Structure formats: structure tokens, C-alpha cells
């Protein structure tokens, strides 16, 4: 065998690559259901139920301006009383401002961002800033459970 011939023996990956933490792009859901800020809270809640999601990015003219969670909607509906009732509330009234993270953010950093921000989901953007996915606390728990087995 000449020295120029490739060695067919498989070699293990270097130890540093074994410890690399996956990025959010490996775990995020690309099935993102969004809503406009002017939508009534009940419309948002019905959309969540119909699409089986617990988070809705809030989009205004193609730009993501926040996120609304199932809990945000329920709190808004429960807190609003009076002659107009909850019908007067819109998604913009209860949505949270949120900055999307790049697809390359490691999962451990995503978990830290969620914990520090009191969030249970992060929106994910591509290099151009376009919304491409969402990663939730449930996604992180599932990834950890799979990694442990």
C-alpha cells in the first residue's frame, strides 16, 4: 500500500467533537403558526387549539414583533371584565416582545436564554433575520431525554 492511498480503517471522531452541543436548528420546529397583532384573543386561542400549538409568533407586515403564549391569552381573558369584556382585547395587548435567536445557537445557550427570560419558547431566525422556526422548553426536555438513553 502506498503512502498516498487512503487508510480504510474507520477512526473515531476527536473528543472535542463528541462534546459539541447541538444547535437549535437540529431541534426547532419549522411548522410555525403565526397571528397578527390585531386579532382578538379568542381568535388566537381558537387557532392554537385548531393547530395544536401553545405559542404564536406575532407578525406585523412580515416582521415578527413578538410572541403570545397560551398562558398569556388565558391571563388576558381572565383579567378583562366590564361591558366590552374580553372581546375588546387583542393579541397586541398581551403579546411579549421577543428577539429571535440565530439557528446556530447551541441548545444549552437556548435553555439559558429561556430560563433568564422566563420564557418557554424561543423564535429562531435565519441569517437574514427571517423567522424559520421555534424551539420550546418541551423540545429541550425531549432532546435531553433522548440524549440520556
Structural notes for this entry:
There is one protein chain. By secondary structure, the chain is of the alpha+beta class. The chain has one domain: CBS-domain, CATH 3.10.580. The protein contains 6 helices and 5 strands, in the order ααββααβαββα. The protein has helices at 15-18, 41-51, 70-79, 91-94, 107-117, 137-148; strands at 55-60, 63-69, 101-102, 121-125, 131-136. It has a 3-stranded mixed sheet. A two-stranded antiparallel sheet has the order 1-2.
Keywords:
single chain, 149 residues, alpha+beta, CBS-domain, two-stranded antiparallel sheet, 6 helices, 5 strands, 35% helix, globular
Task: State the distance separating the first and last CA atoms.
Answer: 41 Å
Placed side by side, the strands forming the largest sheet appear as: 3-4-5
- Named CATH topology: CBS-domain
Radius of gyration: 21 Å
**CATH class (first level) name:** Alpha Beta
| Low-pLDDT regions | 13-18
**Structural class by sheet pairing and helices:** alpha+beta
Helix and strand pattern: HHEEHHEHEEH
- In total, the number of strands is 5
**Which bin fits the share of residues in helices?**
25-40%
Number of H- or I-type helical stretches: 6
Mean pLDDT: 83
Strand content: 15-25%
Count of structural domains: 1
Q: Under the CATH scheme, which architecture would be assigned?
A: Roll
Q: CATH superfamily assignment?
A: CBS-domain
What is the molecular shape? Answer: globular
The profile of the biggest β sheet is: 3 strands, mixed
